Amino acid sequence: MLTEDIVRESLKEIYDPEINYNIVDLGLVYNINVDDGLVNVRMTLTTPACPIGPMVEDQIRENVMMIPGTKDVQIQFTFNPLWNPTMMSDEAKADLGFD
To answer: What Å distances lie between residue 53 and 9, 14, 35, 57, 92, CA to CA?
Structure first.
């Protein structure tokens, strides 16, 4: 069954190439909504001018569409709130020297 947790685990396989850490633990994924095979991901990037948006969007779509039961994936980028290092998981903060 397609669930938010399964989608979140799939998104942990996508890495920000500049920081080399996954987008979930970096705190870039704000919300995941799953409804009848339709997956909506609300997320941000480390900065509004970050050039990796299209690459990350393609990787999200590719990874999530491989999950059985997924019919479509919609990705919404937002910069409200702006990302900052406090949004990272404790593990990411420790690994990246923000603890």
So the answer is: 20, 12, 24, 6, 21
